[in-house]
């Protein structure tokens, strides 16, 4: 199954976290890939996901930004 | 090592320690010469820079504040040290310019940015309570727009030089300051204007101010310290991360003020402040809303500009131009109260912010 995806590249605070939270509320569990392009967004999204009981499974370099994988069973 | 530092500053103790650092050094800057409860004030200092350049000619507020220069250059240094310099621009720059200008006008009706509002509170200036309530109110209105889909669109990655322009402008300001240093009793040195009385003449020695500015710039870039984000995240997500930094700032600044005997509780006769509570409140509603719509407090915009964000740089320039308007059109307050046209400007600013908030709600692709 394709994992859900949030593209927050180029968006400034608090959009990346807002989009992530919306997606988390919508899918409730599973895997989400979030694309961000700044370290601030990477930290904020990871912190927000953790606070919602999701696990940050991995952060990979993706072009000039990052691809954050979060998951919840 | 870099990884550990990175992790620390992203943690709760990281942001608390940065708030505490500012809480120690802002009152110290006041002791070393800066105006009362104005160890650091981003709005006031950018206004003083506008005065030093002659963008307005309010004689008492003309000084090229090295703290602001240090904020931007410190953030630039930190961004390069930690490989975070990301040149980017193109997310509604004109909107950011206008928001910056009105944020400045609102802040100058209150007489202080959110940083100074906290420092005023920590110095016992109870008028700040109305300003902070207004700030929170403005940010709350901003979160309603954010929930309704408000956004400024995406920025694009761009040339490195785009990200360097504001830091270079700041470097240029520093060079001007060194070329044309203040001459005792003179209101002009070369092309720069200086104050011979009022808050503009009160300042810490250049290299101390620059040093503290650089340190704050480095630490705040690392920790993403933001006074607007503190309240926004609390309201929007019930997140206390940034908020704990602001609380640390207020508590530590209060203790430092007590030690330095700079705590003077009361409403009347506070330094660079007026007692018109309603306009202290409404001025900061405007500033808070403008900061929320622009995504950062004035300090944060300087740090973002230092790490390559060209849109944040436009916001900063908007604030400096806004300061020109504020004093040329008699919008800024003084210890006597609001300026002759301050109230009209605040109302126009609120209307403009509402227009921006209501009309920029298209979902991003």
Provide the descriptors you would attach to this structure in a database record.
heterodimer, A: 73 residues, alpha+beta, four-stranded mixed β-sheet, 2 helices, 36% helix, 37% strand, B: 15 helices
Overview of this structure, please?
- The complex is a heterodimer of chains A (73) and B (365).
- Chain A contains 2 helices and 4 strands, in the order βαβαββ.
- By secondary structure, chain A is an alpha+beta fold.
- In chain A, strands 1-2-4-3 form a 4-stranded mixed sheet, covered by helices on one side.
- In chain A, α1 runs parallel beside α2.
- The longest helix of chain A is centred in the N-terminal third of the chain and has 13 residues, at 15-27.
- The radius of gyration of chain A is 11 Å and the shape is globular.
- Chain B has 365 residues and is mainly α.
- Chain B is globular, with a radius of gyration of 19 Å.
- Chain B has helices spanning 2-10, 12-31, 42-52, 66-81, 93-110, 114-122, 127-147, 160-179, 206-223, 227-237, 241-259, 277-294, 298-306, 310-328, 342-359, and strands at residues 88-89, 156-157, 188-189, 192-193.
Question: Element order, helices and strands of chain B?
Answer: HHHHEHHHEHEEHHHHHHH
Using the CA coordinates, give the radius of gyration of chain A: 11 Å
Strand order of the largest sheet of chain B: 1-2
State the end-to-end CA separation of chain A: 15 Å
Report the β-strand fraction of chain B as a percent range.
under 5%
Low-confidence runs of chain A: none
Q: How helical, in percent, are the residues of chain B?
A: 55-70%
With strands numbered from the N-terminus, the spatial order across the biggest sheet of chain A is 1-2-4-3
Main sheet of chain B, how many strands, which sense, barrel?
2 strands, antiparallel
β-strand number of chain B: 4
Number of helices of chain B: 15
